[in-house]
TrEMBL record:
It comes from Shewanella woodyi (strain ATCC 51908 / MS32). It comes from the Bacteria. Keywords: Signal. InterPro entries: FMN-bd. GO terms for cellular component: membrane. The keyword Signal applies. GO terms for molecular function: FMN binding. Residues 1-22 form the signal peptide. This is FMN-binding domain protein. Residues 87-167 form the FMN-binding domain.
Length: 175
């Protein structure tokens, strides 16, 4: 039979171990950028959010977006976006590489949620390859969900839509 102090220590250790396990970094953002461009990462650029961008991003996220700028990396018409979105309780950091106005790669870089990390696997993220954005700001394909990871799936889908829109917006400003 456990004494109250031992029980308290056991509970605290269990909570601490869950908290430690809850944050997993699968790839450093800088490494993702270098891998995407197959070269050292170029200098980061800044996309300043105007009213239109703020409105579109908030529409995609279905909540307020309180940033004024988003950093991105661009090289020879390709862009890389490192974006964060909360799945259920904690931000998920995702790297999205856009090439020829479609997703070349989506990768979960840092996962901080306690559940749903199946979205980091290639079998899931490969669904985003070659995805484009429709006029109604949706992906041109259906992304299959994962049981128990619904909110993480939604987060990655929303971030992919935002990255594609931001990429198209940058192209529009260049021309």
């Amino acid at each position: 039979m456990m004494k109250p102090l031992q029980t308290l220590i056991f509970i605290a250790a269990s909570i601490l171990s869950i908290a430690v396990l809850a944050k997993s970094q699968y790839q450093a953002p800088q490494d993702f950028i270098s891998q995407a461009f197959n070269a050292p990462a170029p200098k980061a650029k800044v996309f300043w959010l105007d009213d239109e961008a703020q409105k579109v991003i908030e529409e995609i996220l279905s909540h307020k977006f309180r940033k004024m700028r988003i950093r991105y990396w661009q090289q020879e018409g390709e862009t890389v976006w490192i974006l964060n979105e909360i799945g259920k309780e904690a931000p998920i950091t995702v790297g999205i590489h856009i090439k020829d106005q479609q997703i070349a790669q989506t990768k979960v870089l840092i996962y901080r949620e306690s559940r749903g990390d199946e979205v980091r696997h290639d079998f899931f993220t490969d669904q985003f390859k070659a995805a484009k954005l429709n006029e109604d700001l949706k992906l041109d394909r259906h992304i299959d969900g994962i049981t128990g990871a619904t909110l993480s799936v939604r987060a990655l889908t929303k971030l992919s839509r935002i990255a594609l829109w931001l990429d198209s917006r940058i192209r529009r400003e260049i021309t």
